Amino acid sequence: MFAVLAGLDVSWREVGVWQVDERVAPDGDPDRNSGQLDALPGKHHLMPVTATNLDAAARRYAGSLPHRFDVVHLGMGDDGHTASWPPGDPVIDHTEPVALSLPYQGRVRMTLTPRVVNHATGRVVLTYGESKAAALAGWLAGASLPIARVTRTATVVFTDASAEVGP
């Protein structure tokens, strides 16, 4: 997706790219999401997950956010998590714009909260692969999954045939 976007005729010097979530890990760690942004032009605003005081860093990052995002890009895990909102984690109920999750899959994560994601003008969810089919079907059927906290209004979902849930 980033390669396709990068090839578009866009004034990239005017585009800001903020991370939705990031694993607390050293710079250059393969677990980090930030390396994926290298393919996308624009001014990158990386989450400060190497800071000594992560709570203060989350507040600083929150202060750098625009009033409203034009679009928020999300993925979805096999368990229905998105934006580092793991099932059962209280991070999904935080009212501040940026918060820290409990350890999930071995890492604490910094994430935008539902308030920010749902305040965006639009959202794009990319989810594909057979392993996502059950969670996608559950979300669309109204199951209590973390991704269900994403408003459906102005949200576009892209998937592939192996994750498809029917007509």
Q: How widely separated are the two ends? A: 24 Å
Identify the CATH architecture.
3-Layer(aba) Sandwich
Number of helical stretches of at least 4 residues: 4
Compute the CA-based radius of gyration.
16 Å
Tell me the number of strands. Answer: 8
Name the strands of the widest sheet in spatial order: 2-6-5
- Helix share, percent: 10-25%
Structural class: alpha/beta
**Range of strand content:** 15-25%
Q: Oligomeric form of this entry? A: single chain
Q: What's the CATH topology name?
A: Rossmann fold
How many domain modules? 1
The overall pLDDT, averaged over residues, is 94
Helix and strand sequence: HEEEHEEEHEHE
The biggest sheet amounts to:
3 strands, antiparallel
CATH class category name: Alpha Beta
Low-confidence stretches: none
Shape designation: globular
Account of the protein in words:
The protein is globular and about 45 Å long. The chain has one domain (2-163): Rossmann fold, CATH 3.40.50. The protein starts with a helix and ends in a 9-residue tail after the last strand. It has a 3-stranded antiparallel sheet. Strands 4-7-8 form a 3-stranded parallel sheet. The protein has helices spanning 2-6, 54-64, 114-119, 133-141, and strands at 16-18, 21-23, 43-45, 71-75, 98-100, 109-112, 122-126, 155-158. The mean pLDDT is 94. By secondary structure, the protein is α/β, with parallel strands linked by helices. 19% of the residues lie in helices and 18% in strands. The chain has 4 helices and 8 strands. A hairpin with an 8-residue loop joins strand 5 (98-100) and strand 6 (109-112).
